[in-house]
Structure formats: structure tokens, C-alpha cells
Amino acid sequence: MMSAFIFRALKSHILATVVVILAAAVLVPASNLLLPADHALHIPTYVMSLMGKYLCYALLALALDLVWGYCGILSLGHGAFFAFGGYAMGMYLMRQIGSRGVYGNPDLPDFMVFLNWKELPWFWYGFDFFPFAMLMVLFVPGLLAFVFGWFAFRSRVNGVYLSIITQAMTYALMLSFFRNDMGFGGNNGLTDYKEIVGFSVQAGGTRAVLFAMSALMLALCLLIASAIVNSKFGKVLVGVRDAESRVRFLGFRVENIKLFTFVVSAMFAGIAGALFVPQVGIINPGEFAPANSIEVVVWTAVGGRGTLIGPIIGAVLVNAGKSYFTGAFPELWLFALGGLFIAVTLFLPKGIVGTIQGGFSTRKAIKVASDAEKGRGDVTPIAQAAE
Amino acid sequence: MTTRHFFRILITLLAFAFAAPTFAQGNDPKPLFDQLADANFNDAEKLVGQIAATGDTRVVPALNAFAEGDLYFRKSDKAVFAAKAAASQLELIDPVTGESAGQVAKGAVTKIKVNNNLRRAIRAALGGLTLMSPDRGARLAAADAILRSPSAEALELVEAALAKESDRAVKARMQEARAVSLLSSDRSVEEKRAAIETIGKLGGRDALGILNSVSSSIDASLKPDLEAAIASIQNEQQLWDMAQNVWYGLSLGSVLLLAAIGLAITFGVMGIINMAHGEMVMLGAYSTFVVQQVIRENAPGLFDWSLAIALPVAFLVTGAVGLVIERGVIRFLYGRPLETLLATWGISLILQQGIRTIFGPTNQEVGNPSWMSGSFPLGGMTITWNRMWIVVFSLSIFVGLLLLMKRSAFGLQMRAVTQNRRMASSMGIRTPWVDAFTFALGSGIAGIAGVALSQIDNVSPNLGQSYIIDSFMVVVFGGVGNLWGTLVGALSLGILNKFLEPSVGAVLGKILVLVLIILFIQKRPRGLFALKGRAIEA
């Protein structure tokens, strides 16, 4: 039973992707640590950290694909789960600073000393302890997703409305975390980390391990996601995406199916955030910005939603492009990104991977849309469907 | 006070009673002025009081001159004159009649010195004197001045003026001024009790301040009256504060309405998740900026008309951009709402960066025309003109749009297409063009909103970003596809926000409102005014 479950997860293209990711997890750190700096294949540490960042984004996009591509929930608030995972890791890293902060206070992080706080708030308890912090990386985003989803799916809020309230959620969280009174460092967020489980976060070796961990977690989450969508449960999931009412009438508890997927996806996003923070060295409320979450949607759309490996490719490609453009032509980056949004939705509605898998369907999509506009065909515009 | 002083007052009062129009002629202030030549500061202060007590308004310029240090006496006969410089000499002016008394060398006269105490006395005296001014406005202003800074000295003057006053409004104001002055004088307890009652009825922060300032020095038997009066004023004050909050809420609500009403068309009626909506608002604001620049350079006299000119310009510019977006992108995406979200977000990034490239990333200065600046008082609150106009403007746009939707042929076609596209099409309506112009209309309205918002917000490429989430909240909260829902949604969110703000602060208030909306959507997923129907989706 269990082996069949795992076997189904290992479709050939998923397997290939996992192999590529695992190879990167070994080869990139090896090249960075073992080859001399002037060797042609040597990867400098900053490039490795950059690639580690892309892998975290790829994991976030994978998480979004699970809910959007397979369950039809377009979350515009996945950045919030990512940021929660990041804050949980950031809190652990802050506790590791100990008395080496600017104010040298052994009990309180610098920003609390600065705000004249006398003791540690209760929600910071336990974060000195690595396993607890890692548990929180999964638990806090999962809890938020559970509570939010429990209410939203039960009241059958869906489609556009769900997207808009997830956006409101991350916006409200951003405003809250900007407040100093929240106890998470306000505007500046959490930064100036020293070490993680005893190793300096700046050291090349630690960076290499963090990169390898990012790749491993990405591969693991890809396998889990693949196992979910290729199981019988996954079939129902796709049913929910394509015809929610029918699945409900067949006797499935649609809200529970959605809730499970949403919570798993939020946990993936939390892991991505937790791996992201030590590699970039800071977490601040800007990560909650609604624009960030929308950008994740674009990575997923570019790569191809509902394909699992598409979002990974999309996230890496778009972010590599971003790094290149913001360095070479900073003025042009937003034009390029905006143009990409439009081009992908118009010409590659299935994304890169989806198009390769399903053949070019651009012309067909345009024809269907223009038919709908002329009143032919069976595509109903939303306003009509909503009534 | 000297007996002489009282004597003169008595005469004045008698004069009021029996020969009001000619009362002052019997007392010549001229000898009083002449005594100033020998007076020290204390005597001068008394003399000023006596001059004022004559009630002769002709002395006002001379007293003004005194306060300015322009009062002199002639060394030869110690006659006092106001003076003004004329070439190298001084021109002497009679302090009472205001007639010129010839020019003298500067050495022939001596300046009468004035200090701050004296200046204060002069100002008080002038305040009292203008109470008798033949000009109604001046009398009212004088009474107001006494109301604001009452003193026992002003009391007699007010009473004198009161006896003469015939205008009802001015008389009422003087009554109040009298009551206020009376509290700091040494009149009887009964009179003070009546005065407290008058002030209590007057209300306002000033009255509260006056009552509080005398509460320590006042007779013990008056304490309960005083406290009752203070309590009643405070109650009234609370009501006004409430009204002020409602007003702030309405004003915020009308800003939200402005920002959201274009979206109520593109999102609410057409179902397009238009993330570029905020950028349409921004384009409207930049159109205003460009119009104002052109006016500043070519026709500065028209500046007060700049907003009126900017309105059609902004409507056409953003409407045209909207038309291009609909024909170029959105028409391929009907039936795929979540993908229009992505495409329009891309458009918004391009528009933002485009504006940033053309105008630079910094805030542009958009001026307020004169009729938008300043404020006016309404009861216990102050209302600024720009907020006032924005409330009026957003409501008129709302009404205009409602009429367009319900009463025009285009509105009818628009509703027909959104309700049943195929039926509308077979009735001969060109649905693609209705789509295009509906989207252009929504965008154009957003542009008009940008003209108004440029008056109260920073005009920068990020302007639209700050409104987009609020706008969606308003439309979703109010109910998609319903303009009335947008109105009620915007105003109630605005008022809710302003009522939460004083107790929890602006940011937390906003967070609470967002959370409340999220919870509200759970309860009513289709918003406040949902379109009724039994169809099930998907």
C-alpha cells in the first residue's frame, strides 16, 4: 500500500527533476568548497547563496501550485506563510545571538532593549531550542492556514473572493508586523544573525550546508506533493478544481479536502521561508507585501500550473532573470516582468511546462475567448456565472 | 477706579438712555489726551480707560497711533497730537477730529512713551470702543474679541454698548461677552449665577476654558452652578466630537468611494479583476499635474479652473488607456477571471514603471486652487474646503454613474450584456464594443477619481498601489455588481475606521477593519448587497 503510494509519486519527469535537484545539492557545494577559486567550474559563495534563495522561491512556488494548480484556490497570500516560517527561523537565530548584540543584553534581543522592554514576551519562549523552532516553522503557518481555511472553505468562499481575502490577510499581517508593539522587531525585522546550531551563518561551509538543505527539502516536498496529486485523493482534488459542486454532490467533503491541501501547502511555504532567512540574513515585514505573493503566482504561471515541476522551473527562471535585469538594466525590470505577466497569460496559458506537455494551444485559447465574446461556444464570463 | 471714572460712566449711561445717537458729544476726550503729556505709565493707563469711556469712536485712530508709539506732545503748549512722518518733518494730527494741525520739525515735539502694560490697556480700550462702531461687523468682531479674552475692565464698556445695541445677533453676542466679563469682575453672586447660565448655553471650548479658569476663584455658593454648566458644555462637546468623527469618516469614506467606484464597474459589473485600477487613478492624478503645468506656463490666470479642465482630460486619457487595455489584452481573457488578475497586474507594473521613467520616482507637486484651500466652522467642528468638495464630488460622480446605468441607452446595453451576453447579442447589441466601452468608462471614472485624490495625496508612481487593496475591499464588502453596495460599503468602512482610530490608533484600526471584512465575507460571501439568485457555480 505504502510502496504503491510512493511508486505513484515517482512519475518519470518528477523522478528526473528530483535527480537533478539532488545532483545540484551535491555538486554545487562540492564545487564551492573543493575546487580552487580560480578553477573554471568553481561556484563562488555569493552565487551559491543566490541559487539557494532561488530554491527557496521554487519551494514556495511549488506550495502555491499544490493549491492553485490542483485545487483551484488562487491564494494571493502565500507570502504570509513564507514570512511566518521565516520569522520562526529568525526568532531562533535571534536567540542564538545571546549577549553578543549591540546592547549586550543576555536575555533580550537588541530591538527589545531599544524599546525598553523588561522581559521576553511569552511567544518568544522556546525559540532558543532548535527542534522547537523547527516545529514552529511548520506549525505556525499550518495553524494560520487551518484557521483561515476552516472559516473560508466552510462558508464556501471561493474563486475571486477567496483570492481577495487572502490578499487582505497578508496585507493585514504586513501592517501588524510593521508595528513595534507586536514584538517582532517592527520595521527593521530580525537581522544581524550570528550562528545556527553552533555554526557561523557567514561561514562558507554553513552556506554550503544551507544550500544542500534547500535542495533536499525541495526534492522532498516535490515527492510529497507528487504523492498527493497522484493518489486517489489527488484525483478528487482535481475534481474539486474543475467541478466543485459535482464533487460535493457526489458526497465528498469538499471543505475538508481543500483544508488539508491548503494546510500542507502553507507548511511547504513555511519551510521555504525558514531556509530563506539564514541565507539572506534578514526577515522583515516587507515579505508580507501583497505584491510579493502576486509575484509567486507569476512564477507558477510562467512555469506552468498544475505540473509541479513547472513552478520550480518558473521560479528559478524568473528570479534569475530578475537578478540579471536589476543588475544590468534596472529601469527595464518592471517592464520585463509586466510584459512577462501579459505574455504568459495571453500566449502561454499553460506555462512553459504545460505547453511542452500539451502542445501549443495558444491559438485555440484565443479562438475560444473570441468565440465567447461573440456569444458562441460554452465559455461563460464570470459575471454571468456568478448570478 | 477713580470716582471721576464712575462719574463719566454714569453720564455715558444717562446719555445712552436719553439721547443715544448723540451720547458722546457731551464728553470731549481732547482734554484727556492733553493730560497724557505729563502722565506716568500708571496715570496714562487710567487716562486711556477714561478716553475709551467717553465712547467717542473718533479717538480710535489716535489710540492706535499711541499703541504704535506715534503719539507726541508739542513742547510749546503740551498739546497732544498723533503724528506721521512727512518729508523730514512730522505732520501733526488732532487726536479727536483727525484734522491736520500743520507740520513741525521733529525737535519741536516729544514722543509719549508706551510700555507693554499700556499697550494691553490700549488694546482693551480699543476693543471696547469698537463695540460702539457704527459698522455692524466691527461690533460683532469686538464682542468676539472680548469673548475670547475677557476682563473685568471690559464689563462697563460692554454694558454701555449693550444698552445701545439694536441688532439682535450682535446683542446676543454682546450678552455673552458681558456674561464672560462679569465672571472675573466683583459683581454680585446672583448676577454671576445668571452669567454662568448664559456661558453654559454658549458652549464651545472657549466657554469651557473660561469656566474652568474661574472655578478656583469663584464664590463657593456658585460651585454647583459652575459644575453643572461645565458638565453640560462637556456633553455638548462630546456630541460635537462625535459629529466630527462622523464627518472624518464620511470624508474618508468618500475617498474610498472615489477610489472604488471605477472598480465597481470593471470588477463589479464586468467581473474583470482589474489590478491596474490603481494605476488608472494614478494616471488621472498625473493628468492633473500635466494640466496644471501647462496652465502655470501659459495661462496662470486660469489656475483656479485647472481642476475643471483636468477632469475631462483625465477622463479621456484614462478612458483611452482602458480602451486599449481591453481591446489589446482583456478581451482574450473573458471567462478566465484569475488570469485577468495576472495580466492586469502586469499592466499595472508597466504603467507604474512608465510613469516613473517619464516623470521620475519623486512626488509631483499638484497645487490646490484657492476655492479648495482653507476651512470653515460648522457648530463645534471645523471643515476644510478640500474635504468638503471631495465629499460633494464623489457623491455627484456616484449619482451621475447611477443615472448613466439606469437611464441611458448605453447603461441598458451594458446591463443587458452582463446579464445575458448571448441574448443581448441576438438582439443586435454589439457586445464586444459594449465590453470595451464599459471598461473604458470604469477606467475613465478611476481617472476622474485621480484628479480629486491628487488634491489630498502625494502624486507619485506608487499612488495607485495604496488604493488598490482598499478599493477591492470596498467592492467586495458592498457586494459585487451593485453600485449602492459600493456606496454603503465605502461610507460605512470610512466611518468604522475613524471611530476605531481614537481608541486603538490608525494602523491597528485599519488592521481591525481588514479582519472584520474577512470575517464578514465568511458570513456573507457575496457582500452586503448580494445579487439574488439560485444558480450554483461550477
Automatic annotation (TrEMBL), chain A:
Any matching Pfam family: BPD_transp_2
Signal peptide range in chain numbering: none
Organism: Endobacterium cereale
InterPro entries: ABC_transp_permease, ABC_transptr_urea_perm_UrtC, LivM-like
Name the UniProt record assigns to this protein: Urea ABC transporter permease subunit UrtC
GO molecular function: branched-chain amino acid transmembrane transporter activity
Keyword Transmembrane (UniProt): yes
UniProt keyword annotations, A-Z: Cell membrane, Membrane, Transmembrane, Transmembrane helix
UniProtKB/TrEMBL annotation, chain B:
GO CC annotation terms, alphabetical: plasma membrane
InterPro entries: ABC_transp_permease (IPR001851), ABC_UrtB_bac (IPR017779), BCAA_transport_permease (IPR052157)
Annotated signal sequence range: 1-24
UniProt-listed Pfam families: BPD_transp_2
Membrane topology reported for the UniProt record: Multi-pass membrane protein
Cellular location(s): Cell membrane
GO BP, sorted A to Z: amino acid transport
Example of a GO MF term: transmembrane transporter activity
Membrane-spanning residues: 246-273, 302-325, 337-355, 388-405, 432-452, 472-496, 503-521
Keyword vocabulary terms for this entry: Amino-acid transport, Cell membrane, Membrane, Signal, Transmembrane, Transmembrane helix, Transport
Domain of life, source organism: Bacteria
Family classification: Belongs to the binding-protein-dependent transport system permease family. LivHM subfamily.
Protein name: Urea ABC transporter permease subunit UrtB
Gene of this entry: urtB
